[in-house]
Amino acid sequence: MDYFKITTDETLRETVQHGSERYPFAYYPEDIWQFDFHRIDWHWHHELEFLYVAEGTAICFIGTSKVELHKGCGIFINSGVLHCFEARSSTYTPNIVFSPTLLASENSLIYEKYILPVINSAVEYQIFDPNSTSERSALQLMLQIFELQENGQDNELCTIQLLLQFWNILFKYRGWNSDLDNLQQSNHNQARLQIMMQYIHEHYAEEITLEMIAASASISKSGALHIFQSGIHCSPVAYLIQYRLAQAARQLYTTQKSVASIANETGFTSAGYFCRKFRQYYNRSPKEYRKKKTEESS
């Protein structure tokens, strides 16, 4: 089985270009189950995203929220919002990622009046349920967009026409009054979260304490705990361990280093403790994981 990864920089911003500068739109017919550990990991992008659950159930973590999306439902994710997706079984989720400038140029009336209020609002996401008449119309438009992408080239004009129809429903569906206080606080917390994550990414092999992680963003330990818990639903120390394990897993299938050597290089105090945590997180021992990844790549 092929496994997929999502690539981000040190701030968790997704680094792949969605579409091109001339046409900033991309369609991804993805199954979350095929990603490493059945998870599209934490990331954000300036582009807007719409994901539809065609089969299975998608578990969505968006900002401070956890949402289960069942077959037939869709979700719009706003610009700059940290999110990830998980699945318990095969979950086919076609999705599109596109720049807001695809709908209108930044200096236009359309952009200022209808696009900017949405991306500047404190609303992180909007769920679309097929049981609602207005929401069902939006979902049908998205399905038409997906069909266009699957049927071949020369679909750009029709795609934009359908996106504008979708945007009209989205814009009218709810008030997009900008809540500047909440938006600024959310952006500030996300920036501090990213600073602390970057610190962990740079120093994970060293002995790191909660106090050191908090100090990297100039906040208290309780502040760091709150920002991590509300941002990615785990503590700073739990994230540190997960990141160390991810780095160890990468070394297991890209090098021939011993388990003890990898444990030491990724910041674990002993090989025994490393093996226990690895099994707890990956449901197999480091040696079993290495063997499985070797077999999959051969």
From TrEMBL:
Protein name: Transcriptional regulator, AraC family
PANTHER family: ARAC-FAMILY TRANSCRIPTIONAL REGULATOR, HTH-TYPE TRANSCRIPTIONAL ACTIVATOR RHAS
UniProt KW keywords: DNA-binding, Transcription, Transcription regulation
Keyword Transferase: no
InterPro entries xrefs: AraC-bd (IPR003313), Homeodomain-like_sf (IPR009057), HTH-like (IPR037923), HTH_AraC (IPR018060), HTH_AraC-typ_CS (IPR018062), RmlC-like_jellyroll (IPR014710), Tscrpt_reg_AraC-type_HTH (IPR020449)
GO molecular function: DNA-binding transcription factor activity; sequence-specific DNA binding
Domain HTH araC/xylS-type: 194-292
Top-level taxon of origin: Bacteria
Keyword Magnesium: no
